[in-house]
Write a structure and sequence with these properties.
The protein is mostly helical and 78 residues long. The protein has a single domain, classed as Non-ribosomal Peptide Synthetase Peptidyl Carrier Protein, Chain A, CATH 1.10.1200. 60% of the residues lie in helices and 0% in strands. It contains four helices and no strands. Helix 1 crosses helix 2. The longest helix is centred in the middle third of the chain and has 15 residues. 19% of the residues are buried. The model has no long low-confidence stretch (mean pLDDT 93).
């Protein structure tokens, strides 16, 4: 899955208007990025990509790009 598709999944999970999230955006600044939102992102990524994100690694992500790279790294390792 490419970067744009992964960002689209994040937008979907957090109910953010499609096309408004960028790789450089801070995850802390995303609308809906709270405990429920984080679980939603994890669930959507697992459902659509077959990747179980490590919660500790996820919590270290600072930007959307970090989250995208984490997902892609985990895809390769599975």
């Amino acid at each position: 899955m490419d970067n744009a598709q992964l960002i689209g999944l994040i937008e979907e999970a957090l109910n953010i208007v499609p096309g408004t999230v960028r790789e450089g955006d801070l995850v802390e600044g995303l609308e809906g990025w709270d405990s429920i939102g984080i679980i939603s992102v994890m669930a959507v990524v697992e459902d659509r990509c077959g990747v179980s994100l490590d919660p500790d690694k996820l919590m270290r992500c600072q930007t959307v790009g970090d989250l995208v790279r984490l997902t892609q790294e985990d895809q390769k390792s599975e």
